[in-house]
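Q: Got a minute? One more chain.
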Amino acid sequence: MAREMRDATSRARDWDAPEPAGDDQPTPRLLPYGEMTGPLAPSPAEIAERSEFGKWIPRSVLPADRDALAEVVRSAGAPDRVVDQIDSLPPDLTFETVVQIWGALGHATEARAG
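A: Always. Here it is, folded:
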């Protein structure tokens, strides 16, 4: 009985060990949508910059227009460069996501194929 219990517990975690790729299958990667390519694909540095920018914009405020975003980033104590970027947004648009805001500022954004 003890051996059966030991065998059962050693197999209990088999489900979370990934299976290796088959001979005719590509090696799995962490990017689920493939590489970001093309003339407007953001570099890793740009993605990090967008992440830093986006941390000042809580999701709870979205969707929001320029004035609402400016109020939020100012009250959060965002750096002047973030406040200046928000102030430069068009006043007549409503933004649903940080990526939309980032794109409206003229920065590269990802696009999913398909």
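A: DSSP finds five helices and two strands in the chain.
Q: Perfect, thanks.
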